[in-house]
Amino acid sequence: MFSKSCEYGLRAIIYIAQQTEQNNKVSLTTISEAIDSPQAFTAKILQQLTKNNVITSIKGPYGGFIIEKEKMKTVTLGEVVKIIDGDSIYTGCGLGLTQCNANSPCPLHFKFIAIREQLRKMLESTSLEMLVKDMNTQNFCLKR
Q: Is the pTM of this model over 0.90?
């Protein structure tokens, strides 16, 4: 459903949020290892998130990536998805057909509308802070 970039981006920001909660800055290498993602690919994703002011990149030997604790309360998974994948997940055809629309629907068109709306609500109502709190009560791994 999400692009590979988006999957890695969601895992990366969740990992960064977990580490920020513990007052840790994390390096690119640490993040890519923790989420089982190629380092160069992870770097491009983190660059997008930094450019969009979701995470902060601190340069230098004691640098790394963090997310401000106040942002963890307000940044939702929906924002991350939009930064990385745009809004195509909410508008695209469930079968990936370019000509699918209300006037010329694919077999899944009208069923998929409800699913997309549920997905939108879940992503837009789930903050990083909520996820980190939930994850602290569970044994959870961000690797595949």
A: no
